Amino acid sequence: MTTPFDCRRALEELQDWLRREVTPESTAAIAEHIAACTPCRTHAEFEQRFRTVLDRVSAQERCPPEIRDRMIAALRREAGG
Amino acid sequence: MADVSTFEAEVLPQLDTLFRVGRRLTGETADAEDLVQETLLRAWRGWAGFTQGSNVRAWLLTILRNTFVSRWRSRKREGTSISLDDADPHAIYRAVGSQDPEGHFFERVVDAQVLAAVEELPQEFREALVLSDLEGLPYAEVAQVLAIPIGTVKSRLFRARRLLQHRLHDHAVELGILKAKP
What we know:
The complex is a heterodimer of chains A (81) and B (182).
Chain A: H1 7-12, H2 14-18, H3 24-36, H4 38-57, H5 65-80
Chain B: H1 4-11, H2 15-26, H3 29-45, H4 56-72, H5 91-96, H6 105-108, H7 111-119, H8 123-134, H9 139-146, H10 150-174
Helix pairs in contact in B: 2-3, 2-4, 3-4, 4-9, 7-10, 8-10, 9-10
């Protein structure tokens, strides 16, 4: 049995919910609240778009190969010395 | 003497992560290289103390973050302060209001501006957001790397995301994607 969330509590936990970092009880209660509450559902879409932007920019950049080579060379000098 | 090839097999798969986090913390590619280089050397010297099978990413990021705090932070200007309406943490959502209630403007802010806005965040918010929301570390791992309780991680992330939303909103206004708040 989950405790129903009010809008304030649902919005407080919205980002954590989108990151799947809330308890299973809260997960169910927030989902239930959002399904029933149009303003919170719109707000959840807003926060989801923000999340999508963070996902888009994350983990794309790689360590440039020349930097990688210099780091490995320095490490091997240290390890051999 | 430990075998460097074993060390490399564990550590080098994390190099892109270390470089990205270093880049976001220092704001500069050259500084990120210095920071990650120093991190790798410290990790190698401390390799005997690493528990095999434990979380190598969290271990390396902890070294990187501690190195940053001790060597770089004092040199790097802090992010400019931003007034944040604590009484209404959803101020941006409300400011956008009926113009774009579903936040489509976020999709139109280009990646370079998003990353620049991240780098402008004050350090304590920036490091939490980079580890959690850009690198995808679970909150517990962010707490481990930053040596703070999970509750503090969550409150810093809450503030960091709001600050970043403010920045992206302001960019969207500058670009004419959104109208300025009346």
